[in-house]
Design brief:
The complex is a heterodimer of chains A (364) and B (405). Chain A is 22% helix and 20% strand. Chain A is built from 9 helices and 12 strands. Chain A has helices at residues 2-24, 33-37, 183-189, 203-206, 219-225, 251-262, 287-290, 319-324, 343-354; strands spanning 63-66, 78-84, 106-114, 124-135, 138-146, 153-155, 160-167, 173-180, 191-192, 195-196, 209-212, 215-218. In chain A, α6 (251-262) packs across α9 (343-354). Mean pLDDT of chain A is 91; it is low at 1-5 and 15-25. Chain B is mostly beta strands and 405 residues long. Chain B has 2 domains: 19-235, Pectate Lyase C-like, CATH 2.160.20.10; 266-397, no CATH class. Chain B is elongated. Classes of the chains: A alpha+beta (364), B mainly beta (405). β7 of chain A pairs antiparallel with β1 (2-3) of chain B, so a sheet runs across the interface.
Chain lengths: 364, 405
């Protein structure tokens, strides 16, 4: 709740900043569609005009902020997400996976840390902004890295190491080298049958309220009303629960939501992790494919000496938990995108596996 | 903030071929960035040339461009060193087609050394992958590791110290592994869940087990078949098993020459197989419980012929140690005798053809054979009813030689 409030204050601050900008500047120029569809990405993020200010705090017209129910763990970074869909075009609703977005769409995600993550609206430092752009031939991924002065973000196709320090939500001082992914590493997660693809914006994961400057509203209804999402089905899907929020679903559902977002981008039959035989997608109903009593194949020392990916009743002997708890590059899962352990995620997995019967089912 | 300078950092030299470039990377503080840049910016047809010396890497490298060659000045001269690796699950990851790797080494990767996933056409020639501290359970699992690939050629390469398999080809099709040296690994060479493999001219020595042909349940590709293992030298495999528990190779007895587990149509011929302390050739069903209705755990249509066997059975280890203690003599070729298995409680049985013929032995003149007489896959060894009578000789047609397209 406190987080939600702070989120709201943050957005209100953004809205205020944007009002001030528009009051002082002339009519702002729209988003630069030519830059979006140019063959080579511009060197600076500002050239897209996705934001009205140099610091990218204030989105331009048609650039809509959104949140997800359950998001990938990234060392606890704050994430600011926006979708831009060009004038006259619409995304198409899809009950199962990610929506179908039209050519010219940009999905924007900025990774940031507050100096003290207990007050996430204060002293926020942007680290990188990643763009996923829908081209006629498919999606492309462009990472932009912010300068120290927070005045510009520069295209960095081969990645970067950025030293980051902050105080975490428990009050501990954390220092790490944030790894901006290179182009191949982007695809290490965003890969379906060899094609780059978005992961987050599916109906299930978007189905929640967002505190817009105009007031709170369901995101999917808002997108539809704003004309960026086409017609909605008569019956909506059920939202995925918020993994860390016990009030939002059963342990089983929250654990499955967590695995879907944090693991299934690789561990699905079309993903980079398909050779393991695991399928951690939300839609997969066979516990054997989640790893229940499944022996390791190519894990090597990452098995930790344990026999099964998931041994029901025994989180302490389950390879899945062992690999989530590791920060050794030869052991850890996911392989990329974190340097810390997601303690809340590990706790959720422990709770789930401890309650599991031999068939991989847990009481609802 | 250390921003990695982009394309300009890598030296660009036009080579003879039209449009094909050679990216030259020399060891030095900029080499890591230059190398990963080259692997990202390369165009099909390009060559990435590694200079002499050690290039120190802190993160795993990856290549996703078709028809690129990465080559060095030789496995002893051009070395990619991962001693300081902090990121990435492997040393070098290839995910594109028609890639050639040649003449360099990958040392001390934190996970697998070189992995090629979902490739059509991967050639690895005169490459060395090694964990330089020798056998250690903290070493990475696989040395050379193509998985779900078509048209795999691995030749004149060296793999040392892998805590699973030095050369491991998994879930692939159309494979040649020839003239390599695999030593001080748990498994020297392993062909797993794969179709059509020729493994020949290799030396597998000082491993826990020399050459393994496995099929495992629960994977996207299973039903491994059509594997020929011939004219290899598979001797003195004596490194105590150092695989981390939980992995299937952790069950390989120290001192195993060839181990065939599950699979159909495997031909082992004209090899030199000796001084393997437990057994020269072991043929076994997959012994663990499984829940995969499409899986067949039996080793069937197996031919062991014209091999020259040396000493064996002098230091039986693992499960077979217990057998030896019961007074069962260890032969050159040991078969568990499995012809039946059950899936979800339903028994299945089939005619299993095991052909053992025309082998010689320096130990006993004529080579020896023993069936453990355990008709149900995975039976406990206490139920063994050993019998030296060889199974009836039934013809098993040999698969055609593998051709890489």
């Amino acid at each position: 709740m406190r987080l939600l409030m702070e989120r709201f204050i943050l957005l209100a601050a953004f809205a205020l900043a944007s009002l001030m900008t528009s009051a002082t500047a002339q009519a702002p120029q729209p988003v630069n569609d030519r830059a979006i569809l140019a063959e080579r990405p511009p060197a600076l993020l500002s050239e897209y005009r996705l934001f009205r200010d140099a610091g990218a705090r204030s989105p331009n017209g048609r650039v809509t902020p959104y949140d997800l129910n359950t998001a990938l763990y990234s060392d606890g970074a704050l994430k600011f997400r926006y979708v831009y869909i060009p004038q006259g075009a619409q995304a198409r609703y899809n009950a199962e996976g990610v929506f179908e977005f039209p050519v010219g769409t940009v999905l924007v995600k900025t990774f940031a840390f507050a100096a003290d993550m207990r007050t996430p609206a204060e002293n926020v430092r942007f680290i990188e902004t990643r763009l996923l752009i829908r081209r006629a031939e498919g999606w492309v991924a462009y990472p932009y890295v912010w300068n120290e002065a927070q005045t510009e973000a520069r295209y960095s196709p081969i990645g970067a190491d950025v030293p980051v320090s902050f105080t975490d939500e428990d009050g501990d001082a954390i220092a790490l080298d944030w790894a901006v992914p290179n182009r191949n590493q982007c695809k290490a997660c965003h890969d379906r049958d060899g094609d780059l693809t978005p992961i987050g914006p599916s109906a299930r994961n978007l189905l929640r309220d967002f505190a817009y400057p105009t007031g709170a509203e369901n995101q999917i209804a808002h997108w539809n009303r704003a004309g960026i999402l086409g017609s909605l089905p008569a019956r909506e899907v059920l939202p995925v629960p918020r993994a860390y929020d016990p009030t939002s679903g059963s342990v089983n559902d929250r654990a499955r939501a967590y695995l879907d977002v944090n693991c299934a981008h690789c561990h699905n039959p079309q993903g980079p992790g398909h050779t393991s035989g695991l399928d951690l997608s939300w839609s997969q109903t066979d516990p054997a494919l989640w790893g229940v009593l499944k022996r390791p194949v190519a894990a090597g020392r990452a098995s930790g000496g344990f026999e099964f990916a998931i041994e029901p009743g025994h989180p302490e002997r389950s390879i899945l938990v062992h690999r989530m708890q590791s920060t050794d590059p030869g052991v850890m899962m996911p392989e990329l995108g974190r340097q810390l352990v997601d303690e809340r995620g590990v706790e959720l997995m422990r709770e789930w596996i401890a309650a599991m019967d031999r068939d991989g089912r847990t009481p609802q | 903030m250390r921003l990695i300078a982009a394309v300009a950092a890598a030296t660009l030299i036009m080579a003879g071929a039209a449009d094909a470039r050679t990216w030259r990377i020399r060891p030095g503080p900029e080499a890591e960035q230059q190398l990963q840049t080259a692997l990202i910016e390369a165009r099909p047809g390009d060559t990435v040339q590694l200079g002499r010396g050690r290039i120190e890497l802190t993160a795993g490298l990856s290549l996703d461009v078709d028809r690129v060659t990465i080559r060095g000045d030789g496995e002893d001269r051009s070395i990619l060193s991962f001693n300081g690796q902090r990121r990435g699950a492997e040393g070098l990851l290839i995910t594109s087609d028609d890639v050639t790797l040649r003449g360099f080494a990958v040392e001390n990767a934190r996970g697998d050394a070189i992995k090629a996933r979902d490739c059509n056409g991967i050639t690895i020639r005169e490459v060395r992958v090694e964990w330089t501290r020798g056998p250690n359970p903290e070493n990475g699992a696989y040395g050379l590791y193509p998985v779900n690939c078509d048209n795999v050629l691995i030749e004149r390469s060296i793999a040392r110290g892998a805590s699973d398999a030095g050369i491991y080809v998994g879930q692939s099709r159309n494979i040649i592994v020839r003239d390599n040296l695999a030593e001080f690994n748990v498994a020297g060479i392993e062909i797993e869940n794969s179709f059509n493999a020729d493994v020949f001219g290799n030396t597998a020595t000082r491993n826990t087990g020399g050459i393994l042909v496995f099929d495992l349940p629960g994977l996207p590709q299973k039903g491994g078949h059509s594997v020929r293992v011939f004219r290899n030298t598979i001797v003195n495999n004596d490194t105590p098993n150092f695989a981390p528990a939980g992995n299937i190779v952790a069950g390989v007895p120290t001192g195993t020459g060839v181990l065939i587990m599950a699979n159909r149509n495997v031909h082992v011929f004209e090899n030199e197989i000796g001084d393997n302390g437990t057994v020269n050739v072991l043929i076994s069903a997959y012994r663990n419980a499984f829940d995969d209705a499409e899986y067949n755990p039996l080793a069937r249509d197996i031919v062991i012929r014209d091999n020259a066997f040396g000493n064996t059975g002098f230091a039986p280890a693992g499960d077979l140690a217990a057998l030896a203690q019961l007074g069962v003599p260890i032969p050159d070729v040991l078969w568990d005798g499995a012809t039946m298995y059950s899936v979800g409680g339903t028994p299945r049985m089939e005619t299993v053809r095991i052909v053992v013929q025309d082998n010689t032995s320096t130990r006993t003149g004529q080579s020896s054979f023993l069936s453990l007489g355990m008709p149900v896959a995975g039976s406990p060894l206490t139920e063994a009813q050993p019998s030296p009578t060889p199974p009836p000789l039934l013809a098993v047609e040999e698969p055609d030689a593998v051709r890489i397209r």
